[in-house]
Design brief:
By secondary structure, the protein is α+β, with helices and mostly antiparallel strands. It contains eleven helices and 16 strands. The strands form three sheets. It has an eight-stranded mixed β-sheet, sandwiched between helices.
Length: about 350
């Protein structure tokens, strides 16, 4: 199978996408091709043997062929006459974290051009990329979330009791997230967060709270779940711990929380995944407070696809790739237009 990895994009998590995509060379045994979306949303074909982080920071990628969308696939211009050359592939893996990749922009484009892909569909992206909407969705499917308050830039922000945790609504990877212990810290943290986003949510910060991650997918109505992982963290799992501690990708710590909590975490994941996320491999992060499970967030395109949580990620990937959701064909028959024309002709 030939997999086209689509990565980069207009996002604060652009560089994380590069790291995840490079990592897939050591994860997937498939034939890989790389399509890099730069900050101008221009797409370049990156040779697999050439891909490394310096290629992007040095702008050397601009010497690679430009790629364009077409119906059911991609093409690049080649030769002196700039003739169009179709690019061979079987399906796309959307590995653009945040921004374009997780807010539904890329999913919408891929759907428009009828390109098969592994990633959440547009409606799932909308739900999972906005923490405010995620809270409402979780409640609607019977999954607990912590209490929260929602604020926009023009709101007067009041906090009844510290400490709290402040989060930009649309960002992932802990970007702009801060633990706030007093009013002075709140004033600073909100200014930082509003540099990234136009809205924030504020939740109570619970010191020492246990966090657990579970990844999975659903194929032909059957769930495939990873181990339950307890990430190693300090006060909270910040950006550096998530993405600069590369050893974490090979040392996931499985935990057994007992039959009750194991079951509740898995059941919560299934309710969240439902049918909304079909065609994707996602990771959900949960809190356990007073023996009760709460959703922290839905990672619709997790770092390195959360491959380190599965005993055989390649098998999981192949099963999803072979069972992607299909769009219903909508025929255009001009039946109503013909009726109108016929009526006018009488």
């Amino acid at each position: 199978m030939k997999i086209a990895i689509l990565f980069g994009g207009l996002s604060f998590e652009h560089e994380i996408s590069i790291v995840s995509s490079i990592a897939m060379k050591d994860v997937l045994k498939d034939d890989l091709i790389y399509f890099y979306i730069d900050e101008n949303r221009e797409i370049f074909e990156i040779p697999t043997f050439k891909i490394n982080s310096k290629l992007f920071s040095s702008k050397e990628y601009k010497k690679c062929p430009k790629v364009h969308f077409k119906m059911k696939g991609f093409y690049k211009e080649s030769g002196f006459l700039r003739s169009k050359q179709n690019i061979d592939y079987d399906l796309v893996l959307n590995l653009s974290h945040g921004g374009d990749g997780e807010d539904g922009v890329i999913a919408s484009v891929l759907d428009f051009y009828n390109i098969p892909y592994i990633s959440p569909r547009t409606e799932a992206c909308v739900v999972s990329s906005n923490k405010f909407i995620t809270k409402g969705y979780a409640a609607s499917v019977g999954v607990n979330t912590l209490d929260y308050k929602y604020f926009t830039k023009n709101d007067e922000i009041k906090v009844d009791m510290f400490p709290v945790i402040l989060k930009p609504v649309k960002l992932g990877s802990s970007i702009g997230v801060a633990i706030v212990k007093n009013q002075e810290e709140l004033d600073y943290a909100k200014d930082v967060a509003f540099e990234f986003d136009d809205a924030i949510i504020i939740e109570p910060f619970i010191s020492g709270v246990k966090e657990y991650n579970l990844a999975g997918t659903k194929v032909n109505g059957e769930f495939i779940l990873s181990i339950i992982e307890e990430p190693q963290k300090a006060e909270f799992l910040d950006f550096d711990k998530k993405y600069l501690d590369f050893s974490r990708t090979s040392k996931a710590k499985e935990v057994d929380l007992g039959e009750k909590l194991n079951s509740e975490i898995k059941e919560s994941f299934k309710r969240l995944y439902n049918t909304l996320f079909e065609g994707s491999i996602i990771r959900c992060d949960f809190f356990v407070v007073d023996d009760k499970v709460y959703l922290n967030e839905i990672n619709s395109i997790p770092g390195s696809m959360a491959n380190y949580l599965f005993s055989d990620f390649q098998d999981v990937f192949n099963k999803v790739a072979s069972n992607l959701p299909k769009k219903k064909h909508i025929p255009v028959t001009f039946e109503y237009v013909n009726k109108i024309q016929f009526a006018k002709g009488k």
